[in-house]
Structure formats: C-alpha cells, structure tokens
Amino acid sequence: MTDTTTSNRLREEALRLRPSAALAPVRSAAPFLACILLAVVLQVWVRPLMGDFYAKLLLDIGTNVILAVSLTMVNGFTGQFSIGHAAFMAVGAYTSAAIVYYGSFRLWGDPLMHGGTLSAMMHGRSDPLLMSGDLLFLGSLVAGGLLAAVCGYVVGLPSLRLKGDYLAIVTLGFGEIVRVLIQSQTTDTLYDPEQIAQTPIYELPRYLGGALGFSGLPFYSSLFWAWLAAAVTLVVAFRLKYSTYGRAFLSIREDEIAAEAMGIHTTRYKVRAFVIAAFFAGVAGGIFAHTVGVQLNAQELGFQKSFDILIMVVLGGLGSISGAAIAAVILTILPELLRQPPCIWGWAMAFIVPAAVLWIALSRRRVRTAVLIALALGAWEAMRWLARETGANLADYRMVLYALALIIMMIVRPQGLLGIREVWELRRPRPLAARGDRGAGGEPGTAGGRVSL
Amino acid sequence: MIEKCLQTLIDALSVGSLYALIALGYTMVYGILKFINFAHSDVFVLGAWMSFTVAVGVGWGGAASGSPVADWVWILLGALGAAGVLMTLWERLGRGATPEAIRARVPATAVGPVLLLVAAWGAGCTALVLLAGVLRRTPSLEFLGGGVILVMAMATCGVVGFCIERLAYKPLRNAPRLNVLITAIGVSLLLQNLGQLNWMFGTRPQPMPPLVPAVPLFEIGGSTDAAGHSTAGVKIWLVDVIGAGTAVALMIALDWLVFRTKLGRAMRAVSYNPANASLMGIPVDRVISFTFVLGAMLAAAAGFLYSQKYSGLNQPAAATWVLLGLKAFVAAVVGGIGKIRGAMLGGLLIGLLEFFGAAYISPELRDLYVFSLLILVLLFRPSGLLGSTAAEKV
Fold first, then answer.
1. Interface contact flag, B275 A439, Cβ < 8 Å
2. Are A203 and B381 in contact (CB under 8 A)?
3. What is this model's ipTM?
4. What is the per-residue pLDDT across A335-347, written as a single tens digit (0 to 9) for each?
5. Which of A174, A183, A443 is nearest residue B275 as measured by Cβ atoms?
C-alpha cells in the first residue's frame, strides 16, 4: 500500500517538475537569441571603444574559438584523431569567398561591401544594422559550412575501417589533397563585370586565384559575425556534450568496444562528429576569408594551420569545451604579446590578478597553482630582463619561445589546462578515468587509457 | 620519347632513394614508440643546412671568409664540457647522497651525460671542419671534402636526435600519445624557428656549392640525324650516381644492423614489446635513444645528398621542406609503417609515382598523386604493402 502511494507521489512530483511543452521552443531558442544580443552589443557598443588592432585581435580570437571548439567535438568528445581540420576550413573559406565575390558581381556589378553597421569592421558608418550584402554573407557562411560538412562526411567514412593513427594520417592526406587541388587551379580571378555576367555559374568556381590566392574579397567579417558564430558554436557544443548524442560520443572515447556492446553504432556517431565539426570549421573558414588583412590562400590553410588548432585543443584539455576556448584565446594573444613583451606590473595586473585569483580559487591544489603562477610571472620578467641586457630583439625569438613553452607545457601538464573537465567542474574530484592519465601504462597502445591516438 | 622516360626514371630513383632514407627514420621511431615524429623532417633540413654552412665556411663556392671555426664555438664547447662534468658528477654522486624522499621526487634527467656528449661532438666536429678546410686547400684531395662534410652532418644530426629524444620525448614515455605528438610538433617548430634566426641559418634561401663535380658519367641515346639536328641523350650525372649509391649503401648497412646484429635484435624486440624486452634484460631506453640517433643520421645523410642534387636551399621553416618530410612519411606508411624494408620500397615507389606523374600527367598535381596513393593504400591495405595485420585483442 505504501508503495503505491509513494509511487503516486513521485509521479505527481515528476509531472510537476516536467517543463511545460508550450515553452519548449522559447527554451531552445533562448540561448541563440542571447548569442545574437551579445554579438550586437559587442559590435555596436564595444567595438567603437577599441582600437583597430585590438578589434582585429578579438576577431581572430573569435575565429580561433570556433575552430578549437569544433575540433574538440572530434578529438575531445569522440576520441578520434583528426589532424586535417584546416582542410574543412579551406573548403568553407573558398566556398564562402566564391559566393560572396561572384555573387556581389552578379547582384551589384562590383565586389565592394554592401553590408550594414553590423559587418563594418574598420569604419563606423551610420548605415542600417543589416543590409542585403549581409544576407549574402550569411548565406555564404552557411553554404561553406554545409559543403565542409559534406567533406566531413567523406573523411569520416574511412573511420569504418581505420582507427587511431591511420585515421589521423587519412585526415592529414585529405587536408593536403584539398590544398593541392585548390592551388593547382588556374591563377586567374575574374574582375570584369561583363565577363562574369557571361560566364555560366557552374564555371565560376574554377576561378579561385589558385596558387596566387583569392584577392579582392570584401571584408564582411566583423566582431558581430565572428562572435555570433563563436557563441553559437559554444552553445551547440555544450548542448551536444550533455545530450544523448554527447554521451554516445564520450562513451566511444572512453572505450569503443564497450560502447559498441552497449548498442551504440560507433561508426555512425564518429561520422556525425566529423560532420558537425566540419560544419563549424567551414563557417570559421568563411569568416577567416573575409577578415581584414587576410589574403585568402590555400597555402596558409595547410597542415600547419591544422596543427595550430590541434595545439589549442590539446593545450586546453581534450574534451573540455571551455578549456579549448580558453586555450584559443591564450594562443591567439600569446604570439602578439611576445612581439613586444609588455611589463606585467602596470595595467596588465588588472587582468592578471583576477585571473590568478580565480584560477587559485578553482584549483584543487592551491599552493601548487600559486607557485606555478609566480614561476610563470618570474620567467616572464626574467625573459624581458635578459632581452634588455643583451639587446636582443624578442620579436625574432617569439616563435622559438612559443615552441619551447609548448614542449614544457606538454611535459609538465600532459592533460592540458583543464583536463577533461569544464571550468566550473574544476573543484570536483577528478573522474576515475582521468586518474589513470599518467599511470605506469606498460603497453603503448593503452598508455593513458583515454586517448587512443 | 624513350629519353624522357629514362630521364624521369633516373630522377625518380635518385629522389626516391632519398625519400627512403628519410622514411626509415619515421618508420623506426614509429615501430618502437608508436608515434609520428614530426620533428624528423626538420632534422633532415638541419642536415642540409649544416652541410651548407660548413661547405661555405671552409671555402667552397667562393673565397673562404675568415676562420671556419668562430671564437664563440670554443667558449661554448668549454662551457658545455664543464657543465656536463658537473652535472654528471651531481647525478652520480650528489643524487646518491640525497635522502630517499627527495631523490624520489627529483627525476633522473641525464642532463649531464647529454651535455658531455654535446661537448664531445662539438670537439669532434671542429676537428672535422678543420680537416675539411685542409682538404679544400689541397686540390688533389678536394673530392674527399664532401665525404667529411657528410660525416659531420650525420654526427651533428645524430647528437641533435639524441638530445631531442632525451629532453623532449623521454619524459613523456607513459603519457598519452597525443601529448607526445604535440611535443613532436613543438620540437619541429623549435628547430624550424631556431634555424630561421640570423645567427643560425637566416631567413634567406641560399645556393649550395657543388661538392661533387658536375660531370656526366655517361650518356645514353642522343643522336644526330641526317639533317644535322642533334638530340640530346640522357646524361647520368655523377651526383645522381653518388647520391643513390650512398643511399643504397646506407640502407644495406642499416638492414644488416637491424637483421644481423645483436643490437638490431634488441631494437626489434623493443619494437615488438617494450615491457617484455625490458624483462629480458634489454636496456630499453638506450635502444630507443640509439634508434633516434640512427634515424637522425640517415635523415642528415639524405639532407646532404638532397642539397647536392637540388642546390637551392630553402629557408629552414619553408613549407617545401615539411612537405618533403610528409612525402617521406607517406612512403613509410605505404610500405607498411614499422617495417624497415617497407620504408625502402615505399620511398622508391613514391619517387617513381611522383616523377612519372609529374612528367606524363601534370606537374602541378605531383603532391596529389602521393597523397591519393596514401589514402588508397590506407583504405584497401591499411597495414601497408609489406605490413602484416595483427588481430585486435579486447
């Protein structure tokens, strides 16, 4: 008797807690509306307060956040190993560039900007927020993403047969093939409106500038577009991670055979991870292509770009979305900082102190974290002192320092900044799986247990 | 027609044997540590640039500019030697004297022996450079200069390979392999950007002076028809013969080392199963270091030979170098990664494919053939041409 009453009570409780169906669309759309709001605020009110240099840096950070977070879906969630992510970016970039460039010619007869305030990066005009050019740009971003997603499907398919290293090599090979195919095209770009109007649409994708690069693109990318896309990527990534999809991804990462035994179609999920990640990489490519000061060239979107993205993901912690985003921010700023290392005692303390306090507060081993931060700051000052004394130009050494920092980071903190946790999970006890990270794994195949390369 | 075919064949074989030399380094490291050593192509570049620096320093390709050995080299050598002796003493004696608790926390880094080795290498290389200088000034012995420079480049890259393994990869022996891979990318970036510095090799491409005289050994074909038009035959240059000959000799030596000696057996045992090899009394760490040294030396030899065949040296961080390394890596995968003979076969195959594709289909797509072959091989025979598939254990 008590059982029935208890179960009835529980059922009523559950029904009361169930979110109302009427509000479901609002709930699912709310984060995206918030993203749009945030991006508009950033563009309309924050952008005029910044110098051009910092605005460009912030734009690059946005692009890199998209790339790092999208690669996290493949490498971090699913435990697959892609080192050809820049290829998806290249596909998206060229698709978007071709649509915007030739689309502008067909619609307006010139390749100039026809965008409103939201896509004005360098000059504050009093245009309406959105104009017809922005719609073209948005459409081109989506088209670039979709085409990249198709490529992601093609690359994901070999994961039917291949695992670990071999899949990684296929992604690398695919990236190189994309680069070579773009570069081996004709180096002509059409710029005569008459000629473009006469060339049939299916002929136009041949004229992408080839090895010389695609020049003359309008600079539509602004803080609004970059950070809108970045915020949407973050929302999608978080929702994905905590959905049934995400659980399936994570289970494949932890143990593929066990996941299969639990009824997860591993191949299908792996391909899906590739497709989703490729879509966002394609969007990031579209934004990259229309950034001020970028001359779109497939040479720059080769394996070295892929490695840059991979480094962000591993440095942030494989599987941690916030970690990847933070690493993207740090690794975009760091090379710029190393050009002319600023003094840390001035205004920089306004950033360093809160960040350090937050990090110490969140970490489990506070003393160690504090010592680490002190050491890093000391090393920074020592570097500046050394440069001053020897008269060396630190800008020449910045890539050397960057490489050294990367190696040291990998040796002293192999799990990356955050491991597999998110920022707000830092104080939680470490999950069991991660404890084996640095265990004395004897067999190379199982070393670390988690990441099967 | 037949001339073109023959010429392509010769080019393909001479470059293919260099691919094979580089691929051996990739495949040996992969066979033992199961990770892709992305820094390998930079060791190859170092070999090429090192040869260039020494050759120009002692007077090939123009007048000798000052002393071939700069003053700071002596200071550096002395400092390295002293530091090495001190570190070794500390590791041998000082570490033993510290309490157990501290000793357990301080890792045995082996920095001391590394420094000592670097100092010894520096002294040896200085001697070799001086020898090369002497040879350069003795016309009857000048042809030996190339050999001395080759040995020096190989020794240098061997030491660099040893240091990379000890300082960067060894601390990560039990870390997830993705970390080792990122470290390898870091080492690669480090080598590239160090090479770009002004006091190293600089940021400009340089012409490598020819150490092997540019004489055609013999000429095949080539005729003068009735109208007096002469068609050029296929010339086989001394450079090609020496290059391919050195590469083949090195490969035979390596094959003998791996399959006929005790050390080679130890290498194969470590590659088969490191844990069990260690139980059998094989010093695993030393074998791994030795493998790195061997791979780096082969890469250096390839770098020297490459600089002789294509004299325009690109700047150290140029993408063309990395692409070359990647193709060698593809050769290793195509042949069956981890298989030494597979790497040799793969290198020749990639060379043939690339050059015949470039000559007969389209030169712009030469990289495309290589990477398409890679994907085809991976799809239909993932373990490579000579590889064997191992059953996956649960």
1. no
2. no
3. 0.83
4. 888 777 777 777 7
5. A443
Task: Give which of A178, A210, A211 is closest to A91, Cα–Cα.
Answer: A178
pLDDT, tens only, B381-392: 878 888 776 554
Residues B318 and B321: their CA atoms lie apart, in Å, by 6
Query: pLDDT band at residue B230, thresholds of 50, 70 and 90?
Result: low
Over residues B98-108, the mean pLDDT reads: 58
Residue B22's pLDDT is 93
Instruction: Please list every residue in chain A whose beta carbon sits closer than 8 Å to the beta carbon of residue B279.
Output: none
Cβ contact (<8 Å) for B34 and A400?
Answer: no
Instruction: Give the DSSP per-residue string, A395-436.
Output: HHHHHHHHHHHHHHHHHH-TTTTTTTS-GGGTTSPPPHHHHG
Q: Is residue B35 part of a domain?
A: yes
- In chain A, the percentage of residues whose pLDDT exceeds 70 is 92
Are B387 and B337 spatial neighbours (Cβ–Cβ below 8 Å)?
yes
Cβ contacts of B179 on chain A, cutoff 8 Å: 314, 410, 414, 448
> Which of B186, B197, B337 shows the shortest C-beta gap to A406?
B186
Give the gap in angstroms from C-alpha A196 to the nearest C-alpha of chain B: 26
Residue B360 within a domain: yes
Residue A58's pLDDT is 92
Rounded CA gap, A434 and A448, in Å? Answer: 8
Q: Is a pLDDT exceeding 70 seen at residue B110?
A: no
Q: Are B23 and B326 in contact (CB under 8 A)?
A: no
B chain contacts of residue A173, beta-carbon cutoff 8 Å: 330, 371-372, 374-375, 378
Instruction: Mark yes or no for CB contact B176/A161 under 8 Å.
Output: no
pLDDT tens-digit series, residues A321-368: 999 999 999 999 888 887 777 777 777 788 888 888 888 888 777 888
Q: Is residue B222 one of the residues assigned to a domain?
A: no
**Which positions in chain B touch A161 (Cβ < 8 Å)?**
379, 382
Q: Which chain B residue is nearest to residue A398, measuring alpha carbons?
A: B193
Contact flag A173-B274 (C-beta cutoff 8 Å): no
Does the distance separating the beta carbons of A440 and B190 come in below 8 Å? no
In a domain, B231, yes or no: no
Residue A141 pLDDT class (50, 70, 90 cuts): very high
**Around Cβ B160, how many Cβ atoms within 10 Å?**
25
Which of A256, A300, A406, A410 to mutate to test binding with chain B, by most B CBs within 10 Å of its CB? A410
Overall domain count for chain B: 1
Do B178 and A397 count as a contact with CB atoms less than 8 A apart?
no
> What are the tens digits of pLDDT across the range A162-219?
777 788 888 888 998 998 888 887 777 777 777 777 777 777 777 887 778 888 888 8
Straight-line distance from the first to the last Cα atom of chain B, in angstroms, rounded to the nearest whole number: 56
Do residues A176 and A200 lie in contact, with contact meaning Cβ atoms separated by under 8 Å? no
